[in-house]
Each structure stands twice: as structure tokens, then as C-alpha cells.
Amino acid sequence: MKESKFKLKYGKYPFYIHCDPLFENTAYPTHSHGLNDKGWPEFMIDPLAFGPEGNGSHINAAYDYFKKSRRKKILHKILKGVTVEVPINKLHKKWDEPPYYTICFRLVPNTFEAVKQAYDPNNEGVDPDLVVVQIYVKGDDFALTDEYYKGGVTW
User: Fold this and answer.
1) 102-119: per-residue pLDDT in tens?
2) Does the pLDDT of residue 5 top 70, yes or no?
3) Which long-range contacts (CB under 8 A, 24 or more apart) does 19-26 make?
4) Which end of the chain has fewer CB atoms < 10 Å from its terminal CB, N or C?
5) Average pLDDT in the 73-85 region?
6) What is the pLDDT of residues 16-58, one digit of tens each?
7) Burial of 11 by CB count in 10 Å (0-12 exposed, 13-18 middle, 19+ buried)?
8) How confident is the model at residue 147 (pLDDT cuts 50, 70, 90)?
9) Which residues are within 8 A (CB) of 61 and not within 5 positions of it... i.e. 6 or more apart?
10) Contacts of 68 by beta carbon, 8 Å cutoff, 6+ apart
11) In which order are the strands placed within the sheet that holds 6-7?
12) C-alpha 141: how far from chain center
């Protein structure tokens, strides 16, 4: 039997993370569900960036980082269209060895191919009220294009 593609996080987080276990030849973005219901944007990341577990930990870390009251202003900047960069060791306090990635956050439209794959797998139409912030590694500009996601990410 194939393992479930849903990773549930109980207790600490008010959302769950939907990730691709990378069993097939194509992958869809790792993404959250439930944050829009709480007035937050959903978070989404390239499935191959850090793998399912690493991507899930980045989504959790992003939530933890932005939920602090002094950082909510930064999240509001992202929602107004500003791309924000955060050093990985600020996002993950226990990250203490190279490589020291810069993690970027940007608002993406509902028409972005990655959003459609993550939130509209049956091609029924993305909820027009859905708000999504993409998480990506600085320099991974390929992950910012529709072409990268068309047909599912391949490796």
C-alpha cells in the first residue's frame, strides 16, 4: 500500500502539510492547508528544495518565524508584494553549519503553475480568495517560473 501523501502535524500547528513523498517521477510543491482559514497565507515550496521532511520543517519554521508579533509586519510586506530574504539560521535557530542558505518569501498569484498544482489538482479552479506565499532558496530562480512546474517537477 502506498504511503499517504498527507503529513499531519498535531498540536503545535494550526495547519497540515501536504507533501509529495517523491515515489513517482514527478512531484508537486510541498504546501500548507488551513492557514487561509486562520487569516494567514498558505506556504508553498519547491518539492525538490529540501525533500518532503526538510520542506515541511521550512513551512513550520516560516510559521514560527512570522507568528512573532514583531515579525508580522514583515509578513504584511510580503503580502503587499515585497520579496523578503531571511538567513536560514534565523529561520531555524538550530542551523549551525554550512551551507548558510538565504530563504526567500514572495507572494504568488493564483495563476502561478505551482499554486494550481498544489491547490487545484483536479483542475476545478483555484479558490480566487486563496493567498499563497512561496518559499524558495535565493538563487533558485528556476523555481520562480511556470515552466519549471508544468507537468510536475521532474528529476
Assistant:
1) 999 999 999 999 999 999
2) no
3) 19/47, 19/52, 19/55, 19/56, 20/47, 20/52, 21/52, 22/47, 22/51, 22/52, 25/152, 25/154, 25/155, 26/151, 26/152, 26/153, 26/154
4) N
5) 96
6) 999 877 777 778 889 999 999 999 999 999 998 988 788 999 9
7) exposed
8) very high
9) 91, 92
10) none
11) 6-7, 16-18, 30-33, 42-45, 132-137, 102-108, 84-87
12) 15
**For the chain, what is the radius of gyration of the CA atoms?**
15
For the chain, what's the residue count? 155
Measured CA to CA, the distance from residue 127 to residue 56 in angstroms comes to 23
Asked if residue 94 has pLDDT above 70, the reply is: yes
Query: Of 10, 69, 41, whose CA–CA distance to 135 is shortest?
Result: 41
Residue-by-residue DSSP string for the chain: -PPPSEE---SS-SSEEE---S-SSEE--EEEESSGGGTS-EEEE-TTSSHHHHHHHHHHHHHHHHHSGGGHHHHHHHHTT--EEEEHHHHSTT--SS---EEEEEEE-TTSHHHHHHH-TTSS---TT--EEEEEETT-GGGGSHHHHTT-EE-
Residues paired with 26 in a beta bridge:
154
